[in-house]
Amino acid sequence: MTDVKDRNGAEQKAAVLIEALPWLERFHGRTVVLKYGGNAMTNDALRRSFAQDVVFLRYAGLRPVVVHGGGPQISAQLDRLGMPSTFRAGLRVTTPETMDVVRMVLTGQVNREIVGLINEHGPFAVGISGEDANLLTARRVQAEVGGELIDIGEVGEVTEVDPGAVSALLADGRIPVISSVARGSGGGVLNVNADTAAAAIAVALRSAKLVLLTDVAGLYPRWEGTDAMSALHARPVSRLTVAELAALMPGLSDGMIPKMAACMTAVRGGVPRAHVLDGRLPHAILLEIFTDSGIGTMVIPDTPPGEGADHVSH
Q1: Which of 287, 296, 283, 291 is nearest to 311 (CA)?
Q2: Going by C-beta distance under 8 Å and a sequence separation of 6 or more, which residues neighbour residue 7?
Q3: 236-247 burial, b for 16+ CB within 10 Å, e for fewer?
Q4: pTM: predicted TM-score of the whole model, two decimal places
Q5: Which pLDDT tens digit goes with each residue over 37-58?
């Protein structure tokens, strides 16, 4: 006779699979761009769960594209070399010497590690750089701090995306893994923020979703005063429109600005949904894509197409 506990456990597993069915149908064959960064890149268990999630998406019929940074690894390597790590407006100040380290760490170390983890499950991942086949072209930018523009070196913003190489890999059933460096429009190589690079690639690929993994549970609402209890019980905003997010942007922290700006760029560029998820939560990607409630913060267009046909939250 089947044990009641075992039967209940089996029923719960079946319920989870059934809950995923409409989302499997909806996203089958669609491209999903995943920006991978933060603590999920440095914790071994989270690194492996991320790789499992990406392979699950591939087997489930989606077309995942991974775009990664490598801030902690770059900072660690700079520290080992006795070189300073300086940030302005959430962007790394990148001297020519620092750029050599950024390029080496992102393309030569981090990219290979991600490819290796994914390929433990099959011959899927192919590592490329934003430089390859002119995938990303960028122009140098300055950071605005206190109303003044400050030179931050070899740092760029994406001005052009040529997704041909990525599209070819997707058509071949591969998982592109892209490091966030770009060809400079004036020559050389530029360091580009991985969040903004992921947004530009998502727009160029007409992705169904942009998902940014970070070290917070989402975008938190502002609260007045210094009430520690209010801060403790604050919950991230589940859903907001581009216009609502634009109104909040001036009050965001330096670290959150590039992430939320990337969400705005993606949605304004035609990506139906952009999400900020807590990468410290194992299998956060699967929870977002294949469950009814979803997690994290979702940014949607001001007038979403097909509003009545979409899920109320995620």
Answers
A1: 291
A2: none
A3: bbbbbebeebee
A4: 0.85
A5: 877 788 889 999 999 999 999 9
Q: Residue 208, SS3?
A: coil
Whether the CB-CB separation of 223 and 302 falls below 8 Å is answered with: no
Q: 3-class SS at 128?
A: strand
How would you classify residue 29: left for phi > 0, otherwise alpha for psi between -120 and 50, otherwise beta?
Answer: left
C-beta atoms surrounding 45 within 10 Å: 9
Those residues whose C-beta lies under 8 Å from the C-beta of residue 195, and which sit 6 or more positions away, are 35, 37, 69, 212, 258, 259, 261, 262
> What pLDDT is attached to residue 208?
94
Which tokens go with 277? 């998820």
Question: Buried (b) or exposed (e) across 182-197, using 16+ Cβ within 10 A?
Answer: bbbeeeebbbbbbbbb
Residue 67 near residue 95, CB atoms below 8 Å = no
Torsion angle (degrees, nearest 10) of CA 273, 130, 126, 168: 70
